[in-house]
Design a protein that fits this description.
Rossmann fold, five-stranded parallel β-sheet, 14 helices
Length: 352
């Protein structure tokens, strides 16, 4: 499909039996609007002005290509795939949780693995939000053409001014910790906090972290003995827009996550026009290639962080470069074009 045709492409995202309510993205969704923000898997519907469904019947009635999410024990997904294909819909499947630790946890059950293999083999195509998930899909459906699997990053509404949460570089201060989970080894939350403590001592920059583990999390943070007054702790979830405003105040977002996730924290940093340092998520590797954790030691990341903290010009340049990279691969326009081309390709194969 030519790129000029992508403006007419609409996608229905189906999360069969999921908790998220049905949502239509005919018009852009703003930060104050009711409903799910146009991020994560909802963003595939939002960037195409499509729709998000939990009922298979409603997705079928849209008469559009369908992105079907693999969720739970995959039983609902398998039933939905059969229903959609019976109605001659073009269907690609995608994992709802795609960190390597999450994929491993989902597929360690024999029954669930068997359903996964059947679904992936029968679908017209597979969309992966990380390169690693794409490789798993290709190997799981080795009898099918490899170009029926695509790595397509989760898009962000970078073109939409209402989602621009920018603060001038000379008004930013401190470091925002991008991880929260103490009990997931690959998140490296403790290692991130220890690195932040070193940087705090060297620069006197403040550190901001979310603690959603209550008293236990508070005690763990207290044991790290940050310099007095330098650790800011948020202990409650709030609206997504408020979270973005908080992130945007900071010079950098720091994390040492090694989970190979899609990269929501990096996507948040893009909306906030700040820099994400460390981590190996898909968006980190695309938009923040010069600052991500891929191939870099913690010591190297510390050096990068120190330079960005003290050099406003370097940080401003890094922000411009990351936005340019993101516009090429992660913006709504770029991903809509990728989706249109991919679904046309797998639709033709299904009809052959």
């Amino acid at each position: 499909m030519a790129s000029t045709d992508a403006s007419d492409f609409r996608l229905s995202v189906l999360n069969p039996g999921g908790r998220d309510l049905e949502q239509y993205f005919d018009e852009p969704v703003g930060p104050t609007d009711i409903g799910h923000p146009p991020i994560n898997l909802h963003a595939f519907a939002a960037c195409t002005r499509g729709s998000f469904h939990r009922a298979t019947k409603n997705a079928i009635e849209e008469k559009r290509p369908i992105l079907l999410l693999l969720r739970g024990n995959f039983r609902a997904t398998e039933r939905a795939l059969a229903e959609c294909q019976n109605q001659k819909r073009t269907v690609a499947v995608a994992l709802k949780e795609t960190g390597l630790h999450q994929i491993a946890a989902q597929l360690r059950d024999p029954g669930r693995l068997a359903r996964f293999m059947r679904i992936v083999a029968q679908a017209d195509g597979c969309v992966a939000t990380t390169p690693e998930a794409a490789e798993i899909f290709r190997r799981a459906r080795r009898e099918r053409d490899s170009d029926t699997v695509a790595f397509i990053p989760t898009p962000y509404p970078l073109e939409d001014e209402q989602w621009k949460f920018a603060v001038a570089p000379n008004e930013q201060s401190g470091i925002f910790i991008g991880t929260r989970e103490w009990d997931v080894p690959s998140r490296n939350h403790l290692a991130t906090l220890l690195l932040a403590r070193e940087i705090c001592a060297a620069t006197e920059e403040s550190i901001t972290v979310f603690n959603l583990d209550g008293r236990r999390g508070g005690k763990l943070l207290a044991e790290l003995k940050f310099p007095p007054g330098k650790l800011r702790v948020h202990d409650k979830r709030g609206p997504y827009a408020d979270y973005l405003r908080e992130v945007a105040k900071h010079k950098i977002v720091l994390q040492l996550d090694r989970s190979r996730v899609p990269g929501q924290v990096a996507g948040d940093a893009l909306l906030c026009r700040t820099i994400c340092v460390g981590s190996d998520g898909a968006i980190e590797r695309l938009a923040f290639a010069n600052f991500c954790g891929e191939g870099r030691t913690t010591s190297h990341l510390k050096t990068i962080t120190l330079e960005l903290l003290k050099n406003i010009a370097a940080r401003a340049t890094a922000i411009v470069e990351s936005q340019w990279r993101a516009a090429e691969r992660i913006s709504f326009q770029a991903v809509r074009r990728e989706l249109a081309v991919f679904f046309e390709r797998i639709g033709k194969r299904a009809g052959d």
